[in-house]
Amino acid sequence: MDLDRMKLIELEGVAKSFSSADGAPRKILEDVNFALETGEIVALLGKSGSGKSTMLRIIAGLIPADEGKATYRGHEIYGPATGIAMVFQSFALFPWLTVQQNVELGLEAQGIDRSEREKRADAMLEMIGLSGFGGALPRELSGGMRQRVGIARALVIGPDVLLMDEAFSALDVLTGETLRNDILELWDTDRIPTKGILIVSHNIEEAVMMADRIIILSSDPGKIRSEVKIGLPRPRDVDSKEVRALIDEVYGLMTLRPVREATLDTAEEAAPYYRLPDTDVTRIEGVLDLLATAPFHGRADLPHLAEESELSDDDLFPTYEALNLLGLAQVELGDIILTTLGARYTEADHTARKAIFGQQLLARVPLAKRIRERLEQEPTGALPEKPFLDLLEGSLEEEEAKRVLEIAVEWGRYGEVYEYDYHTGRLKLPEE
Predict the structure, then answer these.
(1) In this structure, what DSSP letter does residue 140 have?
(2) pLDDT digits (tens, 9 = 90+) for 224-254
(3) What does 25-70 look like in DSSP terms, one character per residue?
(4) Which end of the chain is less enclosed by CB atoms within 10 A, N or C?
């Protein structure tokens, strides 16, 4: 698209909080500065808790920002704007309305007369590949067809800005890829009036294939951490050297956090580092063992490893983080590499594995170290879980604190750092 560059959407210092279960505010976004310009597709990537969907809803005018300002073509956004349309992951169709009626909803809200609504809806359904299905009900359509209806409903109003919130994630791989390519063809051939597209995705390959820019958000709270500009023409070959290099680069930026060893002196100092990646010992060892075997032999391209493991990125990212946290593997430029200790771990028997796991927990995981130290200070060698939950709830919301303690319990029991009685909810030192 050859358009004069101007800012369609701009966020300046945007922050947003929601109330947690105990009523305390939890900050989802903090100091977000972002612009979507005419003629570009931008993808938002980030782990769970990064606030991607919250950011999209602020732009759509569905929720307000608590701090900062969101503008559309220079005008502050106070509610849904006529020039902004959104496509949802869940299709969000009214099941009692026909395809035609669903597509016409936005036009009806704008006060457009019936004959014009029908004409425009028919033209859009033909363009999106649903000609002849106007009289069908949503339940009579496949998932891919229902999402086409959602996209047609968004595009029929002629939006300046199209927002897509995980629009392809509920579809099977082939259907999602076909629909994605159809949208890109409409965009690249100027068959839709849309001037800018903003996509929230968890799929790195999808983002690289579609976007002109990729924005990566950090988590808790969400902040813009990195930006990757993509200068490749579309359509792009997913197997080309350039595309694979970009996918590797984004994987490298998305994966892992800095490791802090368990040497922090106070609970207050350690609190931000108590959060643990949401993965279990079975998955940690499964990925580690896969990495050690052929064809990887200790080093793997992250997208290739994802294919071999048959796990999603959402499952693998916390596992990579756990491996890095425990010093068993590290990520470099889109590759994951066994450390010397990690290689020794894969060759060890079950007893030796547990010993290494426990050793690394105490050396590199502040929460595990603190639990062990508190237990050693008790004459009985045992404590209820509540003091540790209270400690975690000082920096995490209640449900997250429970999840983190459950992970710490599982990891600690496996490494024989401490034991846990599920009947009494008490932690105790392991018997010699």
Answers:
(1) G
(2) 988 999 989 988 998 898 998 888 888 878 8
(3) EEEEEEEEEEEEETTEEEEEEE-TTS-HHHHHHHHHTSS--SEEEE
(4) C
